[in-house]
Amino acid sequence: MKPLRMGLVGLGGVCGAVHYPGFSRIPGVEIAGICDVDQGLVARRQQEWGMSSGYTDVDQFLRQVQPEAVAIATPNVHHQELVYKVLDAGAHVICEKPLGMNYPQTVEIYQRAKASGRRHMTAFTYRFVPAMNFLRHLVRAGELGQLRHARFQRLQDWGEFAIGWRQYKDQAGSGELGDMGIHRIDFAEDLLGPIQAVCGAARQLVPRDQRPDGQACRSQDVEDWVGWIAEFSSGTTGVFEMGKLTKGRGPDGGHDLAELNGSEASAVYQLHTPHQILFARRGEPYQLREVPGEFLKRAGSPRDPGEGDPVRTFRCDQAWEFVSAIREGRECVPSFYHGMRAQAVADSILEAVASRRWVEVPVCPA
């Protein structure tokens, strides 16, 4: 098998925890070069990963490394420009969420990627949790019957100090909605189909005008709590809540739940038990149900489900899906289309919050 030359752009925490571990373990994938605007971070990653090719200029990186595929994990404001540069260089691309700063921008990104003929993927990591794989199977096999209502929660406590670029609208686009909420929009649509209308509320609860080291900084201007109700085209109703200031919940997953209630049974996914779900038929209490072996990882993935922290290691299957789609000449799942869909819903939530009314989600281009 011809080696796939992979490049990494944006070398912060997500790259170190997800992209590098995922791609580096796949046979036939070579991490050919890395790039970040922070020279110190580039140097540290070169030492950690034994890399000879490190760059701070993306144009030089693309020209000299000539990667066949690139993972982008930078602040959101840079996604569009970097995606276009990677596509223009003839490479496949996986980009962190949210794909763009707003819905019109994500439409442009999706259409540009589609026209390029390259593989494109949005990094919606939670689609690859083993419990989510099993939940998806139960829904599609009809085990729950007709889905009537559902709830999705992601509650953490990140403290009240500054959290960097994620707290500024001009760099992130939105706050908790674009950070954690957009993941839940994506896997809710994966499970239940398209969302057609939303209403919601959002709050900025603290200023975050001080860094952990005590230095003052610009106050945040995005929401750190958001909740919304969604009407799905199928008739299912969903209730969502996301927050970063929930005392008693940790910053490493905290409380992450999806509960689906159907006419025949209910099922619950919880991130902190990724190899189990809760399941109950009518008239029964919830009971733990082990995720069957065929759902513990994606078919063919080199990952060992019994190795490492299961709350973290499932993320490597995202890289496997991207590489598999390239090798098989098929669309990635989730693709930039799904990133565009999720942003259409997110922008509708923000509009609903501002106008204090129900908002219809726009129809996305195919």
Question: What does this entry look like structurally?
Answer:
- It is a single chain.
- By secondary structure, this protein is of the alpha/beta class.
- It folds into two domains: about 120 residues, 3-Layer(aba) Sandwich (Rossmann fold), CATH 3.40.50; about 190 residues, Dihydrodipicolinate Reductase, domain 2 (2-Layer Sandwich), CATH 3.30.360.
- Helices cover about 35% and strands about 25% of the residues.
- The chain contains eleven helices and 15 strands.
- The protein has a nine-stranded mixed sheet. A six-stranded parallel sheet has the order 3-2-1-4-5-6, sandwiched between helices.
- The two termini are about 35 Å apart.
Give the ordered list of helices and strands.
EHEHEHEHEHEHEHHEEEEEEEHHHE
The CATH architecture of the largest domain can be named as 2-Layer Sandwich
Question: Which value, in Å, is the CA radius of gyration?
Answer: 20 Å
What is the rounded distance between the termini? Answer: 33 Å
Low-pLDDT parts are none
How many distinct helices?
Answer: 11
The proportion of residues in beta strands is 15-25%
Characterize the quaternary organization of these chains: single chain
Largest beta sheet, briefly?
A: 9 strands, mixed
Q: In one word, what is the shape?
A: globular
Q: Quick one: CATH superfamily of the largest domain?
A: Dihydrodipicolinate Reductase, domain 2
CATH class of the largest domain: Alpha Beta
CATH topology call of the largest domain? Dihydrodipicolinate Reductase, domain 2
Strand tally is 15
**How many structural domains?**
2
State the secondary-structure class: alpha/beta
Mean pLDDT: 97
Estimate the helix proportion, in percent. 25-40%
Order of neighbouring strands in the sheet with most strands: 14-13-12-11-7-10-9-8-15
